[in-house]
């Protein structure tokens, strides 16, 4: 089994969402809609990335305010030496206990400084195999629900075994049609985002 990729550590959390600091200056942070994991006691808490914030610091503000020209080497040097991490927030959509995955809000949030890991394709397939998490995303007012759902489905479809992406998206579309039968405008918005 491959060693999971450590993305960062929890800054703050609740049962509904958690925020972690990402400080890999050479790599891009996990994209919007990516599935990540925090291990809490005997459970793994899965979340969908929905907010990435790059904070400023006093030094960056001074440089921007001064309007001075900077070469790319100096900019990269400053980015690598920054002490302020990128903050990434994920909506908790599932948790696993043993071999069983439950697509609902986890019983407890990750603790401060808990490590956060990227999910490999097999873990994405396992955690998002069913679509019970759709309601968690659709009912959350803190995240752009339609965008997040579409992004997570596109990512999960790419993680399917060869030939499994189309059946996966078809099943997801059917579940969305069932859930949003009374809201065709919202359903159409999600389906359009899936195909773009």
Q: What keywords describe this structure?
A:
about 200 residues, alpha+beta, 7 helices, 7 strands
Shape: globular
Count of helical stretches: 7
Structural class: alpha+beta
- N-to-C SSE series? EEEEHHEEEHHHHH
Biggest sheet: strands, sense, closure?
6 strands, antiparallel, barrel
Helix content: 25-40%
**Whole-number average pLDDT?**
90
Query: How many structural domains does the protein architecture include?
Result: 1
Can you describe this structure in just a few lines?
This protein has seven helices and seven strands, in the order E-E-E-E-H-H-E-E-E-H-H-H-H-H. The protein is an alpha+beta fold and 196 residues long. A hairpin with a 2-residue loop joins strand 3 and strand 4 (43-54).
Overview of this protein structure:
Helix 5 runs antiparallel to helix 6 and helix 5 packs across helix 7 (184-195). This protein has one domain (6-195). The protein contains seven helices and seven strands; from the N terminus they run E-E-E-E-H-H-E-E-E-H-H-H-H-H. The protein starts with 5 loop residues before the first strand and ends with a helix. It has 196 residues and is α+β, with helices and mostly antiparallel strands. The longest helix has 15 residues, at 165-179. 37% of the residues lie in helices and 26% in strands. The mean pLDDT is 90.
């Amino acid at each position: 089994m491959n060693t999971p990729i450590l993305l960062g550590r929890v800054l703050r959390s609740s049962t509904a969402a958690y925020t972690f600091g990402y400080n890999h200056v050479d790599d891009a942070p996990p994209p919007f809609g990516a599935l990540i994991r925090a291990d809490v006691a005997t459970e793994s808490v899965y979340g969908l990335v929905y907010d990435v914030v790059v904070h400023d610091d006093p030094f960056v503000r001074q440089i921007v305010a001064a309007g001075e020209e900077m070469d790319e080497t100096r900019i990269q040097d400053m980015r690598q030496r920054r002490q302020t991490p990128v903050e990434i927030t994920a909506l908790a959509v599932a948790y696993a206990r043993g071999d069983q995955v439950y697509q609902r809000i986890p019983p407890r949030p990750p603790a401060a400084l808990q490590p956060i890991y990227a999910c490999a394709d097999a873990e994405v397939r396992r955690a998002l195999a069913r679509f019970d998490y759709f309601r968690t995303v659709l009912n959350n007012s803190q995240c752009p629900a339609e965008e997040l759902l579409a992004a997570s489905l596109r990512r999960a479809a790419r993680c399917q075994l060869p030939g499994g992406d189309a059946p996966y998206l078809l099943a997801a579309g059917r579940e969305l049609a069932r859930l949003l039968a009374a809201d065709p405008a919202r359903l159409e918005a999600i389906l359009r985002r899936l195909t773009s």
